[in-house]
Amino acid sequence: MPSNDYIFVTEWQVPAPIDVIYEILKSGRDYSRWWPDVYLEARAERPDADGRVGDRVALLTKGWLPYRLRWTAELVRLERPTEIELTASGDFAGRGLWHLEPRDDGTHIDMTVASRAASGQNGPGDPVKLKVCFQGRKRPCQSRTAGA
Question: Which uninterrupted H or E stretch holds 33?
Fold first, then answer.
């Protein structure tokens, strides 16, 4: 695996029904409200987009350090209510898969992202910056992050 390829696996347990979580995750428009420590902006390409295959959301994200990444998520597969798959392009490129599982106390969420930094050393997709940005995701939800 080249040095700028990363796989991130993050898990959460959320005290909400699977259908509610699925609706939030599939559209992407509410990421900045749901996850404000990481998602600074989330703008749907179509204002009426409600999470259909082909929908795209422009994102501005950050981690613990002051690095920001601009990228676009495009929905490529939906399996209601358990899976949402997307592709990423911009400061990094790759694929992400949300897997949802109902539990007695809410919904278990597993997010796997396989990405490659699109920019070189010291650019927005610098491997160190990319790793720190994604590691920042575990803080708000107290998830487990493995990989990179």
Answer: helix 31-34
